[in-house]
Amino acid sequence: MDAATTVMQALTTSERAGLVMDFDGVLSQITDDPSTSALLPGTEEVLAGLAAKLSIVALLSGRPVAFLSDRASIPGVELYGSYGLEHFTENGIEVVPEALQWMTAVQEATRVLHQQLDNVEGIFVEDKSLAVAVHWRLAPDRDGALKFITPLIEGVIDTYGLRHEPGKFVEELRMPLEQDKGIALRRIISTKNLQMVAYAGDDRGDLPAFEAATAAGGHTLVVDGPDMAPEVSTITGAHFNGPEEFQSWLRQLNDTPH
Question: What is the distance of C-alpha 132 from the center of its chain?
Fold first, then answer.
């Protein structure tokens, strides 16, 4: 039995099973302009079906939860943004209390980065609510762009006390809190009393969640793509050749009796 089939069997036979997924590169294609990212056609219906069968289906993303709500507001699917610092509820967006004291620092860092980089060709500053990211995927010279932005980012980090997280041609500045996708996933497992969990991701930011899923006796679903970090591509688990292949697996999961 291959790894993907093993995970499918675990999800369909466990009494309290959960499926938690990243958004970009997993349920959507990686885009040159992050603001244009969207679910693959047909994904909403599949996730709604799974949400009616599993104990929890959730999206856990570095994106702001408002972004997820705008693009993936699906009946029964829970939304966690900013690496779990935000949770979309029926009463609105709930923010982890520890994050409130750092919001001004993030806002000021965002303002400075916009001021310094908005007119630089191929570099894009993304506002992320409780974080800010600098992308250089579109830069004519990616290596040169990285050398240019590195001292600027380091200066902002030193000034505002933020920490950085590297990704695929992106540097993200976050609040210096003990919060990552692993912590968020462990919280979901605990609050939902899950007996089995599977986590799907594609980037370095997903590594803590992969570790948390494995530590809980669950499974990892890795969606491979171009420019993938070596430490992600070598994760043990079920691997999929891009979001389309992962979507096909989700369809098969939804069609399997639970």
Answer: 14
